[in-house]
Structure formats: C-alpha cells, structure tokens
Amino acid sequence: MSFVACGVLMLALAPGSASGHSELLASSPRDGDRLAEAPPAVVLRFSEPLRRPILVRVRDARGREKVQAVRFTARKPRIVRAPLSALAPGRYRVQWIVIAADGFTQGGGFAFRLTP
Known about the structure:
Elements: H1 3-13, E1 24-28, E2 34-35, E3 41-46, E4 50-59, E5 79-83, E6 90-100, E7 105-114
Parallel strand pairs: 2-7
Antiparallel strand pairs: 1-3, 3-5, 4-6, 6-7
C-alpha cells in the first residue's frame, strides 16, 4: 500500500473532532476591532450552554480592570455579558474562562482598540 493510501486510510478511520464542548462562536467587540465609540459591554456567545462563567476580564494597556460585573442567566445559558466602566482611547485585552454544561473548563482571549 502506498504512503498516500495509508495516510488517507488513517484519516478515514480517525475519530471525529466533535467533542461536544462549548466553543466561543462570537464576541462583541470582535478580536481586532477598531471602534470609534466605546462598547457598553463585552458580550460572548457560545455554541453550547454554560454551567457558569468563572472570569471575564477586560484590561487597558496599564492593566486596569474595566469590567463592572459579569451577567449570566439560565434563560440565556450561551451568552455572557460583562458591562464596562468608561473606556478611554487605547488597546483593551479581554480574557475569559467558563465552565460548559458538560463540566469542561475552557478559556481564551482577544483584543480590541478604541480609537480617538
């Protein structure tokens, strides 16, 4: 059997990547956004229901925290909302950690910029 045929056979027999874990589908603002106006909140939307968020952190370039609170309800278990305090022009880094309904803990991060 050729090397290519072996590779194709291995791929065909490999288990799928459908893990069932919740994934971040969208955020507002999005990674890399350049905004003329400050967003009132960071909103994260996930593919599967969450058990709860552990952390949503938004920091400016000096490391100052800008999240007022994290809002999450059982009525919308795929959405996490983090209202923000006043933002000045500059770069902001978002970090998040959540526990999915299946118990899997995951996290990620992204950045956006507020322009003058």
